[in-house]
Write a structure and sequence with these properties.
Layout lengths: L1 E3 L5 E4 L22 E10 L5 E13 L2 E14 L1 H4 L5 E4 L14 H7 L8 E5 L8 E5 L24 E4 L1 E4 L2 E4 L2 E5 L6 E3 L1 H10 L3 E2 L5 E3 L9 E5 L2 E5 L5 E5 L2 E4 L1 E3 L5 E3 L1 H4 L4 E2 L1
Parallel strand pairs: 1-6, 2-5, 12-21, 13-20
Antiparallel strand pairs: 2-6, 3-4, 4-5, 7-8, 7-22, 9-12, 10-11, 10-16, 13-21, 14-15, 15-19, 16-17, 18-19
Amino acid sequence: LDFDTGSSDLWFATTLCTNCGSSQTKYDPNQSSTYAKDGRTWSISYGDGSSASGILGKDTVNLGGLKIKNQIIELAKREASSFSSGPSDGLLGLGFDTITTVSGVQTPMDNLISQGLISNPVFGVYLGKESNGGGGEYIFGGYDSSKFSGDLTTIAVDNSNGWYGITIDGTSISGSQVSDSFSAILDTGTTLLILPSNVASSVAQAYNANDNGDGTYTISCDTSELQPLVFTIGGSTFEVPTDSLIFEQDGNTCVAGFGYGEDDFAIFGDVFLKNNYVVF
């Protein structure tokens, strides 16, 4: 499953699905002695245009050895092609329960807390960089202090929209400030670092990156020409190093790890999160 702090639904491919991928592992409710029908339906759409829909059920969910009883699950009967051909079998939403698609549903994180399965209502996220062998870990109920050095910085979270909203105090490159403050959400389900258009434009100008007109930029493939992108948050600085400023290379051209969207807030996706340990 894709662990996603930008949404709050737990759903996955099932044997009831008419168009799920042949390579996906499918949940079969008939093979579970603890499955219970619910009767309600669900449908979700994501920011990238993908979607999924199906029926609700209830079952015991084993999350890293923690057994969550009577968890509402969403059984997919249809899913977008990006899911059926993708590497995951569904999503586990880690956002707040105010944005579950079916009102009143308790998220796995809600139930981990209410069922006393974790003593602290937090989870630590480590996303491994490909250059370090990839991988990663989510620790529910705590965090892994071996994955970072120094002290954690506590940052105020605005969850009024169901997300982990934070304030970015400023952005700098080579010691020069390139933006004032702006709002952002921390989203493990987004790949790139999506900035408000005015901030992205300033960052791109500093890196001599060219706007591709589709929310992405072309940037130099030579990281020796670049300097880290530095954000000030909660009085501390957090870096996106030069190797993460390049998302992918196609021949002699490279796509930047930052881009822009239509929202007036930023989405700090994996480009940021794989370089900074976060406890939610």
